[in-house]
Amino acid sequence: MRHIVITGASSGFGAALAHSFYESGARLTLIARNEERLRELGQKLSADWMVADVCTDYDTLVAQVERTYGAIDVWVNNAGIGEFDRVVDQTTDVIEETMCLNATAPMLLARDCARTMRRGSTIINVCSQAAKVPTPKSAVYAGSKAALLQFSNALRLELKPAGIHVLTVNPGPIATPFFLRADKSGRYEASVKSIMLDPDRLAKRVVAACEASKREVNAPWWMELGAKLYAMCPVMFERLAKRGFDKK
Question: Which InterPro entries match (predicted)?
């Protein structure tokens, strides 16, 4: 039975991943800051759980999980935040927290996992389509996710000889509580409600991709197509997509 560890697991996409991995027959260790929701989900899925903040506990977290619950087969770096606002209006605290949760902590946790994982293990980093196509009012969020995506691409090459796989998940907007903080006005969430991804369906895709050792999960398909066009013709794409960019 595979041992799956998920950060940011108490709600949203992390909880959806927990359900999907549980349905696949995995043994779970769930990590988050909200003890009440974590305990409830842990009981429902017969999972182990640990209250921790990846931005303050990253130095010992992997070792603590291994010592308490055993060797790790899949580590999912899912914990993350975003605040959609102009850079000039964002505080230093918000920028530092975003970079830590979305980039620095996942990098350090992936490093520690890579030091002890067995052949056939997988590190999953939840990135974003924003890592490929940045938009106004998401400069810090996009920058943090782009850092994690490029880190993951390089780490995949480094760990291939050791038989450890790296999977990145690059979703567009997902129907989760993420937007309670990211979009306090609610305007952006309302404007993209019709195209939001279902977290449960996406989670099932991630589990299948993990089992098949896929390189990436990109959703929705048309955003990934847009990302490829942006990479080839950024100036033209920015002009054509301006209306969509301005939704934030």
Answer: NAD(P)-bd_dom_sf, Sc_DH/Rdtase_CS, SDR_fam
Annotated active-site positions, please?
141
Query: pTM above the 0.85 mark?
Result: yes
CA distance 207 to 214: 10
Write out the chain's pLDDT in tens, 248 residues: 999 999 999 999 999 999 999 999 999 999 999 999 999 999 999 999 999 999 999 999 999 999 999 999 999 999 999 999 999 999 999 999 999 999 999 999 999 999 999 999 999 999 999 999 999 999 999 999 999 999 999 999 999 999 999 999 999 999 998 888 877 777 777 878 888 999 999 999 999 999 999 999 999 999 999 899 889 988 887 887 766 666 66
Residue the block writes with tokens 């530092």 = 96
CATH of the domain at 18: 3.40.50.720
In the sheet that 3-7 helps form, which strands lie side by side, from edge to edge? 48-51, 27-32, 3-7, 74-77, 122-126, 165-171, 216-219
Which domain, by its residues, includes 111?
Answer: 3-245
Q: What is the CA radius of gyration of the chain?
A: 17
